[in-house]
Amino acid sequence: MNTIATGTGTIPPFHLAFPVRDIAEARAFYGELLGCPEGRSAPDWVDFDFYGHQIVAHLAPAELTPAQRNEVDDHAVAELARRLEGKLIPPPFPGP
User: Fold this and answer.
1) How far apart are CA 42 and CA 28, in angstroms?
2) Which of 59, 65, 70, 74 gives 44 a disulfide partner, CB atoms 3.0 to 4.6 angstroms apart?
3) What are the pLDDT digits (tens) for 2-43?
4) Among 20, 74, 70, which residue's Cα sits nearest to residue 48?
5) What CA–CA distances, in Å, run from 45 to 20, 21, 35, 59?
6) Residues 67, 72, 76, CA angle at the centre, nearest 5°?
7) Which of 50, 47, 31 is nearest to 39 (CA)?
8) Residue 10: partners with Cβ closer than 8 Å, 6 or more residues away
9) Domains and their CATH numbers in the chain
10) Residue 56: its pLDDT value, please?
């Protein structure tokens, strides 16, 4: 079995499929923002190489439910965004 090296050891590669509301948004987030290379695709799904793992975004807006949020969650997200602002987090391997 192939494994993928991590900072703390190795793990077997995984496949994860999940619903998205918009394929273009998924491409923008995973492909452009996170830099995951795009693999195969169709009008209603697209797969990405997520650091050696395969993730597949399936167009299925009806399967999504609104996130439950509260003031504590909003504060944690805002604090994380503040801490990450302006910092470039390089991938663990040389990119293309």
Assistant:
1) 16
2) 59
3) 766 666 677 788 899 999 999 999 999 999 999 999 999 999
4) 20
5) 9, 11, 18, 6
6) 90
7) 47
8) 3, 4
9) 13-61 (3.10.180.10)
10) 96
